[in-house]
């Protein structure tokens, strides 16, 4: 009996088995994964820049060591994810090229500036909080190498979220100036964090198919709602308000209602016109150019080793 490869593929999805690199898979499934995993990797790498901005100015040696470790974790996440994308047949050079020439996206959130130390707390609490909400279900996505990479990433991400919450809690118990600085950071990061989940389901071109392929387990709007519900409660513990006059508990739905999101701003940012898009891409391109001599030296060394081994 001959079974079609697409039947084997669909049967695996049905039975919650993982698709592995050497398995047959439909070309659009492969392309969707390459798109999503590479953009996710780029987000981790570009995401090092806004926080990197505060490493030299962290308020104590302990805060500096923690932030340094967090930013290094993000480099690691980028590397696991690039490695997972490579198993789908795309080279790392090609992915970097797509980032540098603006073809591949990275998360909109990293195009906003970090203006004060409190932004490091707000990023940890809200940006890492949103990242975890989106990434925990990705541990169960249907592509094996991506799902396995996400398990470790999520463990580290939850440490990141807690360190952000703790920075804000400390500031909330501080002087009036410190409380004001933290409230200002929360005000600026709230709406951009809501946009991290992507466009509303009704205007998301990829959600339906990705749900069918079990790449996505929840829709953008479902995850956004879970995020609002958790943050609304945590904000009370922190003693900060969220900048949304329409945020309100709804006993009928069992969720918090929230006000309209500025999708115009989101579209501007993902089309390259956010406050820091140019600065972020320039920094990545410069890092690539400055690293040229390292790549050349590594290749020369590898070639020499190969000649030696052959001799
Ligand atoms: N920014 O149809 P959909 C982190 C694009 S966390 C930019 O909904 P999809 C940790 C989307 O790519 C951040 N672009 O698409 C960290 C598509 O464009 P395309 C990274 C966005 O893929 C914390 C178009 O809009 N996390 O880095 C955004 O089904 C702190 C249509 O959208 C991930 O990448 C956006 N916010 O759903 C690091 C998670 N939203 O490709 C440092 C994995 C949408 O057709 C510091 N990715 N777009 O040109 C995903 O779960 C999904 O790709 C979504 C988008 C949910 C982001």
Structure, explained:
This protein is mainly α and 311 residues long. Helix content is 66%, strand content 2%. It contains 13 helices and two strands. The protein has a two-stranded antiparallel sheet. Helix 4 packs antiparallel against helix 7 and helix 6 (118-135) runs parallel beside helix 8 (176-195). The longest helix has 29 residues, at 144-172. The chain is globular and about 70 Å long. The termini are far apart. The model has no long low-confidence stretch (mean pLDDT 97). The structure holds Phenylacetyl coenzyme A. Residues 35-36, 39-40, 43-44, 47, 74, 105, 107-108, 123, 127-128, 131, 134, 195-199, 204-207, 210, 220, 270 line the site of Phenylacetyl coenzyme A.
Strand content: under 5%
Order of helices and strands: HHHHHHHHHHEEHHH
Into which percent range does the helicity of residues fall?
55-70%
The description of the largest β-sheet is: 2 strands, antiparallel
- The number of helical runs is 13
| Number of DSSP strand runs | 2
Q: Could you report the average pLDDT, rounded to the nearest whole number? A: 97
Q: Which structural class do the helices and strands define?
A: mainly alpha
CA radius of gyration: 21 Å
Spatial separation of the terminal alpha carbons: 51 Å
> Which molecules other than protein and nucleic acid are bound?
Phenylacetyl coenzyme A
**Strand order, biggest sheet?**
1-2
Shape: globular
Low-confidence stretches: none
GO biological process, one term: phenylacetate catabolic process
Protein name: 1,2-phenylacetyl-CoA epoxidase subunit A
InterPro entries: Aromatic_CoA_ox/epox (IPR052703), Ferritin-like (IPR012347), Ferritin-like_SF (IPR009078), PaaA (IPR011881), PaaA_PaaC (IPR007814)
GO molecular function, one term: phenylacetyl-CoA 1,2-epoxidase activity
